[in-house]
Specification:
Number of strands: 7
Largest sheet: 7 strands, mixed
CATH architecture: 3-Layer(aba) Sandwich
Radius of gyration: 17 Å
Low-confidence stretches: none
CATH superfamily: Vaccinia Virus protein VP39
Number of helices: 8
Number of domains: 1
């Protein structure tokens, strides 16, 4: 399927990148990054285990931990902000993580143009930008069209796992995923946090504001 994204779900701000993060990008990009090409990937060329894709990994701390603790799976992290990419590349190198690759590009374009249909074991979307103001909510990543794009890339039996600390966005996510006939909620309503997902920085900030953490876990059933 083709998904026309007219409005970006993120804003590229002038983020401060440290000298260490910049050096990591220079030293390790060729080793651990996949360049955006707009052409379908040969998954087997880069990944030797079932593939999980994380969209918007922030500074990548949780991403690295999940990959390190699950050597029987392969992981691809997609992010647009360079400081987080530099931090994650450093972590990959320091910990010798061999099952994690990174793409620095818009996730929607990567998934649409580079990820083959029915090739992904799972999608992770942890604490995406909630765009809380009413006039901003059109920027939210999770909508009907994008969900269908994710479903088309999932294997049957594959999953979409989302978490957010914004109740309004959680309710929107629940409605959108529940409306997709190819997906099934694995829980009666909200999912339980699995033991393999570490707490993210955004999650910690949300808890300090007394936000309720909502988790969703849906599987592709057909």
């Amino acid at each position: 399927m083709e998904y026309k994204q007219n409005i970006k779900s993120y804003v590229l701000r002038a983020s401060r990148i440290s000298s260490g993060q910049k050096l990591a990008i220079e030293k390790y990009s060729e080793k651990h990054c996949i360049k955006y090409s707009g052409q379908k990937l040969d998954i087997s060329e880069y990944f030797s285990h079932p593939l999980c894709i994380e969209i918007g990994f922030g500074m990548g701390t949780a991403t690295a931990q999940i990959a390190h603790r699950n050597p029987d799976k392969s992981f691809l992290g997609i992010e647009v902000h360079l400081p987080g990419i530099g931090r994650l590349l450093s972590k990959i190198e320091e910990d010798g993580i061999g099952n994690l690759k990174v793409i620095n590009h818009d996730a929607v374009e990567v998934i649409e143009t580079m990820i083959p249909e029915s090739s992904v074991e799972g999608f992770h979307i942890f604490f995406p930008d909630p765009w809380p103001k009413t006039k901003q909510q059109k920027r939210r990543l999770i909508n009907q069209e994008f969900t269908q794009l994710l479903v088309s890339r999932l294997k049957v039996g594959g999953y979409i796992y989302m978490a957010t600390d914004w109740e309004h966005y959680a309710q929107q996510m629940l409605r959108v995923l529940s409306a997709n006939q190819d997906l099934q909620n694995e829980y009666e309503l909200w999912a339980e946090k699995p033991i393999w997902r570490p707490e993210t920085a955004f999650e910690s900030k949300g808890k300090k504001k007394n936000h309720i953490i909502r988790e969703l876990y849906f599987k592709r059933v057909k």
